[in-house]
Structure formats: structure tokens, C-alpha cells
Amino acid sequence: LPLPLSGVVKGPALLPIIQADTPAQAVDIAKALSAGGIGSVEVVLRTKEALAGIAAVRNALPDLLVGAGTILSAADAIAAKAAGAQFLVSPASTPKLLEAMIDCGLPFAPGVATPSEIAMAFEYGLTEVKFFPAHLSGGIEMLRALSSIFQQVRFCPTGGIGQHNLADFLALPNVFVAGGTWLTPAALVKAGHWQQISELAAQATAIATK
Ligand code: 3PG
């Protein structure tokens, strides 16, 4: 199996999402996050130039850990690795997807939202998963309930995380990192308000390292 994602995450236990229209924009977002103390980012494959964005961020910020998110197929996993992604994140789990990500060899977190999906990942030997959509799937209470059943499984919750609930998610012993888009709101990205993104990141970093 690939290395666990928790073993490679750099900096605070935060995994902000970068969704960028151009590689240059991805680099601007990554620089802003990095200035706010972030050490790991997830560039999501939701825009045409996302793969080029991964390569550009790797090149511009060699100390940042750069992963690819929204991996939905074996082809996505292979393309992300070729672009320079250092880890993979998926919102979902299917046998095909899990096998593709294992074969890829990069640390990864497949998405789960139910006990059966966690059990499926566990059957593949995987004990680190993304819990998505975290808030809509029961949030902190659900993670507490899952902890008594899946005692070895650790989660990266995403979906509905914000500064207001970040500390509560990170306080759970079965949460190893928290992710999402709250540090990179589309409106700030569109307006190029990099300083505000840095400030959001610094606030989250302070919460995560307390
Ligand atoms: C993800 O891909 O994990 C989600 O976009 C995160 O959801 P959020 O936008 O609520 O943070």
C-alpha cells in the first residue's frame, strides 16, 4: 500500500482546496495560503487547467505539499501523478477507484460517508479516508459514532468546514486533517484578494496549531 496521507501532510493539519481557472491563478492562491502558514494543498480537478495548475504550483513552491483532489477515475489518478501531484484525494470510493489509487502508489484518501464505504476501504487495508460531505453526513456527531466502531480509521473531513467549527473537528482523535474551500472562497479568488486569503489561512493555522 502507498504511504498513509497523514505521514506526508506538511504544516498545520489543514488541507485547503485550490480551484483555479489558470495555472497562474493556482500559483497565486498557493502563495497566499503558504504565506498564511499552510504547508499542504489540494488542487481539485474541476477546471480545464487544473493539471497544469498542479505542475505550476509544484514548480513555484517546491516546499509546499501539493495533491490532486476530485479524483474520480483511474485516468484522473494517472494524469494527476504525471502532473506532479504528491497525493490524491477522492470524494468517493468504488472498488475500481480504490484499486486505481493503490496502483498509483501515491498517498491518498478515498471519500466515504457511510459505515459500508469505510468497511470497503478497510477491506483494502486502508485506514485513512476522507469523510465527505462531512457536515451533511452527520459532522462531528457522526465522526464520534464512527470512532467506536472503526477504531483504527482516521478521517479527513471536508464539506461544510469553516473557521467556526474547525477546532471542534480537529479536536476529534479520529481526525488527522481537515479540508475544504473555506480558505479560498471563489469571490476572493476572482477578485484577486490574496492578502485576505493569507489572513484566513493564518487564522486557520492559529486554530489548528493551538
Ligand atoms: C471537497 O471537494 O472536499 C469539497 O468541495 C469541500 O466542501 P466545502 O466547499 O464545503 O469546503
From TrEMBL:
Top-rank taxon, per record: Bacteria
Coiled coil start-end: none
Entries under InterPro entries matching the protein: Aldlse_KDPG_KHG, KDPG/KHG_AS_2
Tagged with keyword Lyase: yes
Keywords noted in UniProt: Carbohydrate metabolism, Lyase
GO MF: (R,S)-4-hydroxy-2-oxoglutarate aldolase activity; 2-dehydro-3-deoxy-phosphogluconate aldolase activity
Keyword Lyase tagged: yes
EC numbers for this chain: 4.1.2.14, 4.1.3.16
One matching Pfam family: Aldolase
Entries under PANTHER family matching the protein: 2-DEHYDRO-3-DEOXY-6-PHOSPHOGALACTONATE ALDOLASE-RELATED, 2-KETO-3-DEOXY-6-PHOSPHOGLUCONATE ALDOLASE
Name of the protein described by the UniProt record: Bifunctional 4-hydroxy-2-oxoglutarate aldolase/2-dehydro-3-deoxy-phosphogluconate aldolase
